[in-house]
Amino acid sequence: MVDIIKLFNWTYVSTIASEGDYGEKGIEHFKILANKADICIAESAKILRNAKHSDFLRIIEQLSSKANARVVVMFVDEDNCRRLLSASREMGKAGYFLWLGSDSWGRKIHPVKGQEESAGGAITILPKRKPLIGMYSI
């Protein structure tokens, strides 16, 4: 993710993490690497396990407060990704953010189905996969 940010010469981003090991440790590691690459973190938000709709609206408002940090690095599960995209549309911010989604989003359709306007321009990553020679699926 840091390599992608550097490729586009972005230097000021925000982050969102889902509560728990995946989200919090992912963002923690990202922040370490971002610091080494001179990437500044404008805002950091965390989605609690029992987050309500109003929490997602608050996060979008928080992210919007830094107009120069429209790139948002996300380590969130696909359901919370969907809820964030919906909240951005509801807050009139569809297409405002450039989401940089972790492998929990990847190529999945569920987070963006019906949210295409909010997700437009997103970049998502997947670990490189290669089939093993001689292996087959059952």
Automatic annotation (TrEMBL):
<keyword id="KW-0472">Membrane</keyword>
<dbReference type="GO" id="GO:0007186">
    <property type="term" value="P:G protein-coupled receptor signaling pathway"/>
</dbReference>
<dbReference type="InterPro" id="IPR050726">
    <property type="entry name" value="mGluR"/>
</dbReference>
<dbReference type="GO" id="GO:0016020">
    <property type="term" value="C:membrane"/>
</dbReference>
<dbReference type="Pfam" id="PF01094">
    <property type="entry name" value="ANF_receptor"/>
</dbReference>
<protein>
    <recommendedName>
        <fullName>Receptor ligand binding region domain-containing protein</fullName>
    </recommendedName>
</protein>
<keyword id="KW-0812">Transmembrane</keyword>
<feature type="domain" description="Receptor ligand binding region">
    <location>
        <begin position="1"/>
        <end position="128"/>
    </location>
</feature>
<dbReference type="InterPro" id="IPR000162">
    <property type="entry name" value="GPCR_3_mtglu_rcpt"/>
</dbReference>
<dbReference type="InterPro" id="IPR028082">
    <property type="entry name" value="Peripla_BP_I"/>
</dbReference>
<keyword id="KW-0325">Glycoprotein</keyword>
<keyword id="KW-1133">Transmembrane helix</keyword>
<keyword id="KW-1015">Disulfide bond</keyword>
<dbReference type="InterPro" id="IPR001828">
    <property type="entry name" value="ANF_lig-bd_rcpt"/>
</dbReference>
